[in-house]
Amino acid sequence: MSKYIKGLVQGEFEKKLSGVTGFMVVNTMGMDGVNNNKLRTDLGKKNIKVLVVKNTLARRAFETAGMKGVGAVLSGPCTIAYGADSVVDVAKEIVEIIKTYKKLEIKGAYLDGVSLDAKGAVELSKMPNRRQLQGQLVTMVLSPGAKVAGAIMSPARNIAGCVKAIIEKAEKAA
């Protein structure tokens, strides 16, 4: 490939990967065309994009985007999977979809400046995603308030219960 063509391809990678902060790297070698298309369709339904890359050009594109240390993940035949809400969602989908597509192999992941090997990428899929973390945070923030409100309301409930019991007792006696 001439330098000019490599520059064009690298420019396309930079366009497609702009804004990407994390991704999974998989090996799709050995998959036939039909399964490859099914894989892309299945992942596309989950808003996950798949891009087969030339490693040297992808490294340059990522370095231009400020993502250092990507080189450790990109070796051999590489396909990058990115998108969804976060790389954790991508990891969960890839780990799940590997059960269907036996030829698909996880090679690693890249997340917030850290390259992960295949084992780390599988562990990444076990982490909570952004929505789950937000839910946990909201629960943690609201929990003390609910306890305080319960503690404040508890004496009033006790008094109201006693008054109600006295009224019922007086009604029975009358």
Helix content: 55-70%
Low-pLDDT stretches are none
Q: CATH first level of the largest domain: which class?
A: Alpha Beta
* Rg: 27 Å
Order of helices and strands: HEHEHEHEEHH
Shape: elongated
Largest sheet: 5 strands, antiparallel
Assigned CATH superfamily of the largest domain:
Ribosomal protein L10, N-terminal RNA-binding domain
Which structural category do the helix and sheet elements fall into? alpha+beta
* CATH level-two architecture of the largest domain: 2-Layer Sandwich
CATH topology grouping of the largest domain: Alpha-Beta Plaits
Name the average pLDDT. Answer: 81
**How many strand elements?**
5
Q: What spatial order of strands do you see in the largest sheet?
A: 2-3-1-4-5
Distance between the termini: 102 Å
How many alpha or pi helices? 6
Strand content: 15-25%
Number of domains: 2
Question: Secondary-structure map with pairings?
Answer:
Elements (H helix, E strand, L loop, with lengths): L2 H14 L5 E6 L5 H13 L2 E6 L1 H10 L13 E6 L3 H11 L7 E7 L2 E4 H7 L5 H44 L1
Helix pairs in contact: 1-3
